[in-house]
Structure formats: structure tokens, C-alpha cells
Design a protein that fits this description.
Layout: H1 3-9, H2 20-50, H3 59-89
Helix pairs in contact: 2-3
Length: 90
């Protein structure tokens, strides 16, 4: 490739500032994503309850479910909390 082709394919960095409405939209999307992930996790737990042997939830399912919910809750909760603090400071 020559220099002309390389420079034409490079992307320019984003310099546009994010508006307050866009920040609120992103926070709402983030909260809905966390809610959906929790619902899916609960659905998997319920599905594991009804698979053979019926009525027994395998310990690996409970461990995986607990780890996933803890991870998702921590990431989304901390991120949401600190974004709210930063918005208040501005």
C-alpha cells in the first residue's frame, strides 16, 4: 500500500462532546442491560430446577449463577454510581 491509501483508511478520533440527553440515554440502556442479564440468569436457574433430575439444582448451576450475578451487579452498579457522582460534580 502506498501512503495515500493508508491515510485515507484511517479514522479520525471522535471529538464531539456527549450531550446530557445522550448520557441519560446511555445510563438507561445500561440499567436495562443489567436488568435483562439478571432476568436471563433467573430464567436459567429456574430452567435448571426443572431439568432431570427434577427438583434438584446442581451445585455448579448455583455457583455459576451467583458468580454471574455478583459480577454483573458489581460492574453495572459501580459504574452507574460513579457516573452519577461525576454528573453531580459538573
Amino acid at each position: 500500500m502506498d501512503d495515500k491509501t493508508v491515510t485515507q483508511t484511517r479514522r479520525k478520533p471522535r471529538t464531539a462532546k456527549v450531550t446530557a440527553a445522550e448520557k441519560q440515554k446511555r445510563l438507561r440502556i445500561q440499567m436495562w442491560e443489567s436488568i435483562i442479564l439478571i432476568i436471563v440468569g433467573c430464567a436459567l436457574l429456574i430452567a435448571a430446577f426443572f431439568t432431570p433430575p427434577t427438583g434438584e439444582i446442581h451445585s455448579s448451576v448455583l455457583i455459576a449463577f451467583g458468580e454471574i450475578l455478583t459480577f454483573v451487579g458489581a460492574i453495572f452498579g459501580l459504574d452507574y454510581h460513579y457516573k452519577a457522582i461525576i454528573d453531580k460534580l459538573k
